[in-house]
Specification:
126 residues, mainly alpha
Amino acid sequence: MINRLEKGLNTISDAEGKVNILQTQIKEDEPRLEKLDKDLTAKNIDLKATLEETNKKTEEVTEKTKIQEAEVATLNEIKKSIEFDKQDCEKSKAEALELANKFKDSEIKEVAGYASPSEHIMSLLK
């Protein structure tokens, strides 16, 4: 039994020695750990500021994107309207050319004569 007690005391003594060594190491490392803690805290603050700035820029870009999408939609509507007007103009042009081709040379010469009417016709128009 004494042997067991001595063995237990030796184990406790060894453990106490190891604890003392660990406490010494912790005390030696404490300034370095405190500096690391301060550095990490500062970096964390910087990262939070950067994150806030990034989030703000993301919101701005998102808002600008929404505005641009609305502008694109408006431009697409204008483009559709222009294409419709273009088709309508082309149809009118084709109809006008078809009518113009039906005129005879004599009719064209007669109408061209209206550009400089005689004095008698001018006095009637007044």
